[in-house]
Amino acid sequence: MELMELLKLRRTYRRFKQEPISDEIIDEMLTSARYASSAANLQPLSYVVVKSQEKVKEVFEHTKWAGYLPKEEGQPKAGEEPVLFIGIIENENINRGQYCDTDAGLAISNMTLAAWNHGVGSCIIGACDKAELSNMFGLKEEQKLHTVVAFGYPSHTSKMEDAKDGNIKYYLDENKDYVVPKRKMEDIVKYL
User: Fold this and answer.
1) Which partner for 10 in 93, 116, 140, 156 could form a disulfide, CB atoms 3.0-4.6 Å apart?
2) Distance between the two ends of the chain, CA-based, in angstroms?
3) 15 to 36, 87, 155: CA distances (angstroms)
């Protein structure tokens, strides 16, 4: 896929087909995260891959979805859940929070783009029970759960439109597909 098209179409997806993601694609996603730039090249991130159906369901129970929508519209229903979660873990002995958000953002971006290159959609989830998931993931004292990312082959579409009157809240259209308003270029860029 052409890079700009890949960037345009890699949106957030919140309903998934119940098809497994191959180990080859998962390995490529993780390799792409490893390739991401890191502040001072400290590389404080590690990853927990959750792919067994039983464990995916456990993680799913501790996540919240689509904060702009009522739960009955934003939360994936039975048969729409992700088939894979990847936990992004910070090692505070390597880097105590300084730049970890930037490192995590770069790694997550690489990972979700590598996934989307194979038609695998994703949803980045910060709204989760981090204490429960940290326990479930067996994290050590120096490890901190940054984010979990849900993956699966999407069962809906997601598209962008220009924001109207500054409203950036995503919504579902008449087909229950996601529409994501983006600020216009002239509203976000200043040339000197």
Assistant:
1) 116
2) 33
3) 27, 19, 6
Q: Is the pTM of this model over 0.85?
A: yes
Residue with tokens 């979990």: 148
Question: What tokens does 31 get?
Answer: 């390799």
DSSP string, 10-42: --B---B-S-PPPHHHHHHHHHHHHHS--GGG-
Both tokens assigned to 96: 């105590």
What is the rounded CA–CA span in Å between residue 138 and residue 135?
5
Residue range 176-181: mean pLDDT, rounded: 94
Give the strand pairing for 158-162 and 178-182.
Answer: parallel
* Residue pair 48/89 in contact by the 8 Å Cβ criterion: yes
Q: For residue 25, give the nearest of 104, 100, 83 by alpha carbon.
A: 83
Q: For residue range 89-147, list pLDDT tens digits in order.
A: 999 888 766 788 999 999 999 999 999 999 999 999 999 999 999 999 999 999 999 99
